[in-house]
Design a protein that fits this description.
alpha/beta; 12% strand; binds S-adenosylmethionine; 356 residues; 13 helices
Length: 356
């Protein structure tokens, strides 16, 4: 029996799981329609563009899923200079983006002072909203960056299941990783908080994924990114032994487009006012229609890449990443065409959550 359309009103965990497991085209139609309507009513038809610059691929973590994990020996490491990053910020402003997202591996070489000065300079020169996504950092650093003008911080909690989290995201020696706690603290510091998960990570069950969506609702997260897990051959989860990590076949979530779109749609229903990107990972598994389908199933954000091409190819968290060889200008034109082709319009301004 497919789940009843009325169950989409305020779905509990069991209902979310039932919708996640549903794969019949006709049965899914009410989910798609409702997610698109809720998106239209709560965040409108504008699609906001965030310029993404990948400022460093150094990383001290050993995440089992990530192609730039610290011990991946065949990665050429880079860290952009402040001047190079500022040039990307100017380019993002010139292209009409309202936000600059600075992302990196977890890199202590990006010191508190370097990032604070950089945030101040980007704000002063461009007036763009600034999102940081630099991994797990201490409260002193996070406060200093907020004081320097950072608006948002993006930190995916990856999975809400403690055992799976410990397995795929090992602690650093002498520390305990707790991303949910960091998200709560950053909210108290005044950041808009962004988070999210990968869909289909080996060991992720339907029940765990339904629990992730409940956590999005419970934490009332401002921006939620979900994309398919894409195996990197440089990692334990992407190499020959990936099956050792998988849940039993009837419980393991597939890392496919349809499941990702269901997660986007259900996330829109439980977090009607959140900003939801149509992710690069979705565009990677479906280069022809992935971006558009994400936007049609609940998303309202895209993140075109403004990283200089010579660095972009080195920020290879998974192979075959969409848009990897495009210039920022070409990427913008392509995004605009895709947005207009589905009857949506380009957003202007920072496009924040706008809590009242
Ligand atoms: N170091 C920061 C952090 O950990 O939050 C930001 C960079 S990290 C590479 C950004 C995100 O990429 C992660 O939160 C993870 O969800 C995603 N990611 C990493 N490896 C991936 C893979 N193999 N497939 C899909 N997404 C992946």
């Amino acid at each position: 029996m497919p789940p009843a359309p009325e169950s989409l009103e305020r779905p509990d965990r069991a209902t979310i799981e039932a919708w996640l497991r549903e794969s019949d085209d006709a049965a899914l139609e009410p989910l798609w329609q409702r997610a698109d309507r809720v998106r239209h009513l709560h965040v409108g038809d504008a699609v906001h563009l965030r310029g993404l610059v990948e400022i460093s691929n150094h990383c001290v973590r050993q995440c089992l899923y990530c192609g730039i994990r610290g011990c991946a020996a065949d990665v050429t490491r880079y860290r952009m200079s402040a001047g190079e990053i500022l040039a990307c910020a100017r380019e993002a402003a010139r292209l009409g983006y309202g936000t600059l997202v600075m992302q990196s591996g977890e890199d202590p070489g990006l010191t508190e002072a370097f990032v604070a000065d950089l945030v101040g300079a980007v704000k002063a020169e461009t007036g763009l909203a600034v999102t940081l996504s630099l991994g797990e950092r201490c409260d002193g650093e996070l406060r200093a960056w907020k004081a320097a003008g950072a608006d948002r911080y993006l930190l995916r909690f990856e999975t809400s299941d403690p055992a799976l989290y410990r397995r795929i995201h090992p602690n650093l020696p002498g520390t305990v990783s707790d991303r949910l706690a960091q998200l709560r603290r950053m909210r108290d510091m005044g950041y808009e908080i962004g988070s999210g998960v990968m869909v289909g990570i080996p060991g992720q069950t339907w029940d765990i994924l339904a629990g992730d969506i409940e956590v999005f609702r419970d934490l009332d997260i401002d921006m939620i990114g979900v994309g398919p897990f894409l195996p990197s051959p440089r990692t334990p989860l992407g190499g020959g032994h990936a099956d050792d990590y998988a849940a039993p076949p009837d419980e393991q979530v597939p890392n496919d487009e349809l499941t990702t779109l269901k997660v986007v749609a259900l996330t829109r229903l439980v977090c009607p006012c959140a900003n939801l990107p149509s992710t690069t990972a979705l565009a990677t598994i479906d280069p022809a229609r992935g971006r558009e389908l994400g936007l049609m199933r609940g998303a309202n954000i895209v993140m075109p890449n403004v990283t200089p091409p010579q660095y972009r190819v080195l920020y290879e968290i998974y192979p075959g990443k969409a848009c990897i060889h495009e210039t920022a200008q070409v990427c913008r034109g392509c995004m605009e065409r895709r947005i207009l082709s589905i009857g949506r319009r380009l957003g202007t301004g920072p496009g924040g959550r706008g809590r009242v």
